[in-house]
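Re: beginner question about structure tokens

> Can someone show what the tokenized structure looks like for a real chain? I only ever see the sequence side.

Sure, here's an example I had lying around. Input first:
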Amino acid sequence: DIATELDMSPDELDSVATFYNLVFRQPVGRNIILVCDSIS
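And the corresponding structure tokens:
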């Protein structure tokens, strides 16, 4: 279990994974297209 390896609780690990938008919680394809919708 990854949480055990990192000495974190599963809830802490879930918080980190959902905070960063480039940490995918499910398998993704080889190519990922990201679109910025910011005005600046």
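Each token stands for a local structural state, so reading them left to right follows the chain. The radius of gyration is 14 Å.
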